[in-house]
Design brief:
Peroxidase, domain 1; four-stranded mixed beta sheet; elongated
Length: 186
């Protein structure tokens, strides 16, 4: 996983690595990953839970009580529930989204997967999606999981991001390059 100079991302990475190691040892990577995805969805969809996670005004006791109530209601695995309690007790709930992202990255690396963000001018067909996934897999040397976005402003072609690499074959970029080249000539 890429290192960052941000102290928050360092904290999130350490927690994510610890949780991943525990989940791997218990053979529960997929379970924990799906439970964390549900908590991320809760953060995204519930303003009260998001406030609990992000706000520094809640005491450690308040956060632990709230997490205990949520864990009792949601009933995640013991590992996930205990982990969330530890994060709350240590007043680190504010890094929970970073922990979730980090855990997902560790899990993907463990499975030999790499994530690719694909932007296209129109929705890809199943055949196009399959062909692109195979081509990207051959390029990356790993199984590729794609996140697709449709952006009609690129006019045509694709923009693919894999890790720190970006491949931009969009018509918009080609037209902009042509426009610059014509300005230099004229």
């Amino acid at each position: 996983m890429a290192q960052s100079s941000s102290p928050v991302s360092g904290v999130a990475d350490r927690y994510a690595q610890s949780l991943f190691d525990l989940a791997r040892d218990d053979g529960a990577i997929e379970t924990v990953e799906s439970e964390l995805a549900a908590f991320q969805e809760l953060i995204d969809s519930n303003a009260d839970f998001r406030r609990l996670v992000e706000s520094p005004v809640f005491s450690s006791d308040d956060q632990v009580k709230a997490i205990d109530a949520i864990v009792a209601e949601v009933k995640p695995s013991e590992l996930t529930g205990n982990f969330l309690r530890v994060v709350a007790a240590n007043r680190r709930l504010f890094v929970l989204p970073g922990i979730i992202r980090g855990f997902r990255q560790y899990a993907a690396d463990h499975r030999g997967e790499v994530a690719a963000d694909v932007t296209s001018a129109h929705k890809l067909s199943a055949a196009q999606r399959k062909e692109l996934a195979e081509a990207l897999g051959a390029f990356a040397g790993k199984t590729v999981t794609m996140t697709e976005t449709v952006d009609s402003t690129i006019l045509g072609g694709l923009i693919v991001k894999i890790g720190s690499r970006q491949i931009d074959t969009s018509l918009r970029t080609k037209l902009n390059s042509l426009k610059l080249a014509l300005k230099e000539v004229g």
